[in-house]
Amino acid sequence: MNQLRRESPRIGVDALCWEIVDGEPATSLAVDVSSIGVRIERPYTGGPTVREVQLELEVPGIDEIMWARGEACFDMVVPAKASEGGPLGLIRRTGYRLVRAASRDLRLLKEYVLEADRLRRQREELELATVGGYARA
């Protein structure tokens, strides 16, 4: 049986991201990140999936913009709320694997993801301990 394993946890975020396609920036929203990739969403406007793009990503929690080369891993179009989906009422979700970036930027992103995951796990453990304490009383 083939088991896929992640090298890094995914962290849900709301961070600005720009895809540079044919020299033109397109604004999108990064909705989750890992140390090796990002998933972005933006209103669907048509057109093919570009296999490799330049990305500018606002590193969450840090006042830094990271430049990276992203390789599309998946691309899908889904229905959206009218306010989010643009004129067609659809959102395009694209996952990019970060294939090139400055070592410093990749290190910052990895540190952010690992620390955010550690804090999330601590919160979950505290919530379970609190619920467990109430259940015993």
Task: Give an overview of the whole structure.
The protein is of the alpha+beta class and 137 residues long. The protein has a single domain (11-136), classed as Beta Barrel (Thrombin, subunit H). The chain contains one helix and six strands. A six-stranded antiparallel β-barrel has the order 1-2-3-6-5-4. β1 (11-21) and β2 form a beta hairpin.
- Name of the CATH first level: Mainly Beta
Radius of gyration: 18 Å
Strand arrangement within the widest β-sheet reads 1-2-3-6-5-4
Number of helices: 1
The string of secondary-structure elements, in order, is EEEEEEH
Question: Which CATH architecture would you pick?
Answer: Beta Barrel
Q: Please, what is the oligomeric state?
A: single chain
| Secondary structure: helix percent | 10-25%
Give the low-confidence spans: none
Strand content: over 45%
Largest sheet: 6 strands, antiparallel, barrel
Number of strands: 6
Tell me, briefly, the overall form: globular
The structural domain count equals: 1
Write out the CATH superfamily name.
Answer: predicted glycosyltransferase like domains
Short synopsis of the structure:
The chain is of the alpha+beta class and 137 residues long.
SSE layout:
Blueprint lengths: L10 E11 L2 E10 L3 E7 L8 E8 L4 E16 L10 E12 L1 H34 L1
Antiparallel strand pairs: 1-2, 1-4, 2-3, 3-6, 4-5, 5-6
Features:
alpha+beta, 47% strand, globular, 137 residues, six-stranded antiparallel β-barrel, 6 strands, Thrombin, subunit H
